[in-house]
Amino acid sequence: MKAIVQDTYGSADVLELRDIDEPVVGADDLLVRVHAAGVDPGVWHLMTGLPYLVRILGYGLRAPKARVRGMDVAGRVEAVGRNVTRFQPGDEVFGTCEGSFAEYACAREDRLGPKPANLTFEQAAAVPISAGTALQGLRDKGQVQPGQKVLIIGAAGGVGSFAVQLAKAFGAEVTGVCGPDKLNLVRSIGADDAIDYTREGFTDGGRCWDLILDTAGRRPLSQLRRALTPKGTLVMVGGEGGGRWLGGFERQLMAPLSSLLMGVRLIGLIAMERQEHLQFLRELIEAGKVTPIIDRTYPLSEAPEAIRYLERGHARGKVVITV
Ligand SMILES: NC(=O)c1ccc[n+]([C@@H]2O[C@H](COP(=O)([O-])OP(=O)(O)OC[C@H]3O[C@@H](n4cnc5c(N)ncnc54)[C@H](OP(=O)(O)O)[C@@H]3O)[C@@H](O)[C@H]2O)c1
Q: Which of 172, 179, 254, 262 is 20 to 30 Å from 295 by CA-CA measure?
């Protein structure tokens, strides 16, 4: 089968389209014929091995242990292991797995769900990681409530474009922060208000929000705190451009201590992939409350170009690879 493979950590130049063996399916796994694979910054981190924290966490000290990139997947079940009960060959699925930038990928049963009936494979592949992260940030960590004022920083990005729609679905009043060319997009997906961060400050204390979801974590916590109501919550999702060792993740690690020192709720998110999230999201998607925004699609052979595009940090929604 064809797959995007890397032998060493590095830039997108280390990725090669190769012919390799199909993955071997374990008793609890499924073999998925991949139709589309989402691209997100996690792919970039595993490709580069940066920050070094990624390597220490077990992904391979000198070279990536898993050589085929890609996690988000949408496709059709080709074969099932003997313990698999919920799926059968031919089912259309979406979820996460290891090595989705390939014609076939092996996925755990508990990381997949039935594909939303009203989405194409390309749209479905955009959902699992980014929408799952937005869901956990807003619902599980942020405990968003109807009527709350919610600020999404990075509202036009992969996580942010889902977060705006989810926050609206939860009944919040939503403000999105984005660059000047994305104000219309952010309003069109449901934000009540959109702030162009190149022209307007939002951390001077003039306006406050009950919940802030920060997906572009470059602003100091002391600034963000000024934009929170006294009982407000800041959920830190991420942000690129930090140091080589921790990549800005130190903000998340320090969240409990910073919370104590600053007297507000600061929460670092480490998103997990769960079947329950897929099911929850599928219901919202099929009800028309959440729709993936696809910026660009690339064929499998152009996966390196897809990652280079995402790396520039200004995608409009999601980037997807078609297989
Ligand atoms: N904690 C976790 O478990 C977890 C899970 C998933 C992702 N993440 C992290 O979350 C971050 C976002 O992921 P993503 O998929 O949404 O990335 P993305 O699609 O590249 O979006 C990044 C967004 O950041 C915005 N941005 C850039 N500079 C900004 C600034 N100065 N102020 C406000 N916004 C700015 C961009 O908006 P404009 O184009 O409008 O400038 C863009 O929409 C990444 O760092 C990723 O690694 C963490």
A: 172
CATH number for 173: 3.90.180.10
Mutate to test the pocket of ligand 1, among 237, 307, 312 (most ligand atoms within 8 A of CB): 237
Residues of the chain with pLDDT under 50: none
d(CA 314, ligand 1 centre) in Å: 8
Measure 35 CA to ligand 1 centroid, in angstroms: 25
User: For ligand 1, atom 9, which residue shows the shortest CA distance?
Assistant: 238
Structure tokens at 12: 């997108």
- Report the number of distinct structural domains present in the chain: 2
Partner residues linked to 31 by β-bridges:
79, 106
Give me the amino acid identity at 192.
Answer: D
**Residue 39 falls within a domain, yes or no?**
yes
CA of 216 to the centre of ligand 1 (A): 4
Strand order in the sheet with 228-236: 193-196, 173-178, 149-153, 209-214, 228-236, 265-268
Residue 287 lies in a domain: no
What would the pLDDT profile of 166-202 be if each residue is shown by its tens digit?
Answer: 999 999 999 999 999 999 999 999 999 999 999 999 9
CA distances to 79, 128, 174, 227 from 288, in Å: 31, 17, 18, 31
Q: What is the C-alpha to C-alpha distance for residues 39 and 41, in angstroms, rounded to an integer?
A: 7
d(CA 320, CA 272) in angstroms, rounded, equals 21
Q: Is 180 exposed, middle or buried (0-12, 13-18, 19+ CB in 10 A)?
A: exposed
Q: Report how far ligand 1's centroid is from the alpha carbon of 153 (Å).
A: 8
Question: CB of 195 closer than 6 A to ligand 1?
Answer: no
- 157 CA to centre of ligand 1 in angstroms: 6
31-62 residue pLDDT tens:
999 999 999 999 999 999 999 999 999 999 99
Q: Are residues 52 and 147 in the same domain?
A: no
Q: Are residues 215 and 300 in the same domain?
A: no
